Amino acid sequence: MITILPLAGVPEVRAGDDLATLVHEAVAQSRATRIEPGDVVVVTSKVVSKALGLLGSNDVERADLVLQESQRVVAERTTSTGFTRVVEAKAGPVMAGAGIDSSNADDDVRLLLPHEPDAEAASLHGRLADVAGHADFAVVLSDTSGRAWRSGLTDFALGTHGLTPLEDLRGLADTHGHDLAVTVRNIADEVAAAADLVKGKLDRVPVAVVRGLDRRFLHPDADGSRTLVRSGPTDWFALGRAEAVRDALGVPAGSAMSVEVGIESVHPETVTDRVRRAWSAAVLPDPAGEDAALDGADEEWSVTCADPYVLGRIAARFEVALAGERLVAELTPNPGSVRVGIAQPRH
């Protein structure tokens, strides 16, 4: 039977604190009483960041700080408070805002994720092993994130040590004798999410002990959480809908040009605003765009240019950019111009 035990005795963590000692003392004061062989100690990454003093500079705008803590931008939107970006964080996962966090911290504090969370999990495991008197346990650093196609937030494994992150069941037979073709269980994320059921976000319980997990999942040389991040050919969603189109047109997400073109809003926008943004995406990256002009409003527009080749080129780029805005364009060529009728798809 799996038991999840909250450690409520961890005090407010400050930069330079010995987190292993704080966790060990909290274990002794809890129902867990001690770290037993086979336990998984799940620690909220926030307290690791606090102990390491990983703070973002208040002299840097939050949007710029997100870019600094990112490998690449996956999607971006304009909100009432500025830009929100989903990024591949330097810590590894794809998540909103690079995981920069100000909750449960002073007003002027912006906590950053460790760039090598598996190494931090290993370091914490080593220090905990010293005070616990044995190393037969695992450590998971957890963080919180949303998931594509699902509402709400859940905890996931940002860093791991001593826990096999994935269980590959492909090739094994199910209860009906059929071979499993795609089933790979994410054990690390399941453990992190389970621990959050007793940690929570409002009760200031940053650590939990998961006891009773099948011992086959614990191994001192297990791969870390980096193996959980899909990248390259396995990442089918490297860019968002709008970002993929704009990137193909030469407007990379997170760039100064993206800001100049304009970034789609989470709030309702007029067709005219979306058309104007599509036009900017079509012409600004293309030097030939300087010779073309757009006129019109609402659903009726006209692209003009004296050079017929440039006219065709820009009109084609405009049609693609409009598709990125979820607008359907009907192009009708005329001498020296292209009429562009705009419609919104039903879906």
TrEMBL record:
<feature type="domain" description="Coenzyme F420:L-glutamate ligase-like">
    <location>
        <begin position="10"/>
        <end position="212"/>
    </location>
</feature>
<keyword id="KW-0460">Magnesium</keyword>
<protein>
    <submittedName>
        <fullName>Coenzyme F420-0:L-glutamate ligase/coenzyme F420-1:gamma-L-glutamate ligase</fullName>
    </submittedName>
</protein>
<keyword id="KW-0479">Metal-binding</keyword>
<dbReference type="GO" id="GO:0005525">
    <property type="term" value="F:GTP binding"/>
</dbReference>
<dbReference type="GO" id="GO:0046872">
    <property type="term" value="F:metal ion binding"/>
</dbReference>
<keyword id="KW-0436">Ligase</keyword>
<dbReference type="Pfam" id="PF01996">
    <property type="entry name" value="F420_ligase"/>
</dbReference>
<dbReference type="InterPro" id="IPR008225">
    <property type="entry name" value="F420-0_g-glutamyl_ligase"/>
</dbReference>
<keyword id="KW-0547">Nucleotide-binding</keyword>
<keyword id="KW-0342">GTP-binding</keyword>
<keyword id="KW-0464">Manganese</keyword>
<dbReference type="GO" id="GO:0052618">
    <property type="term" value="F:coenzyme F420-0:L-glutamate ligase activity"/>
</dbReference>
<keyword id="KW-0630">Potassium</keyword>
<dbReference type="InterPro" id="IPR002847">
    <property type="entry name" value="F420-0_gamma-glut_ligase-dom"/>
</dbReference>
